[in-house]
Design a protein that fits this description.
- The protein has 85 residues and is mostly helical.
- It is globular and about 30 Å long.
- The chain has helices at 2-17, 22-35, 38-51, 57-63, 69-82.
- The chain is built from five helices and no strands.
- Helices cover 76% and strands 0% of the residues.
């Protein structure tokens, strides 16, 4: 939970400095999804969809390579829990 809180805080700070930073929207949404906070997840997902309208789990899996498969699955799981399809 402390790492999720840190991810959320860093993503929010990134967005405060640059509201159009899509990567920060994705991190905020994934971290919010992992917390189980439905309200935060919904707000984060809405912001992500505004910043990247065509975002999907398939796009993330295809376009954002990660060195470790388990890291990619964890990231996708957070996005899925936030409501991304």
């Amino acid at each position: 939970k402390p790492l999720l809180d840190e991810a959320i805080n860093l993503a929010r700070e990134s967005l405060r400095q640059r509201a159009d930073f899509v990567g920060a929207h994705r991190v905020l949404t994934a971290a919010a999804g992992m917390t189980g906070d439905r309200a935060l997840s919904a707000i984060a997902l809405q912001g992500l969809r505004q910043a990247q309208p065509n975002i999907s789990l398939q796009w993330v899996a295809r376009e954002l390579p990660m060195r470790r498969a388990e890291d990619r699955e964890h990231y996708l799981d957070g996005l899925r829990r936030a409501g991304l399809e």
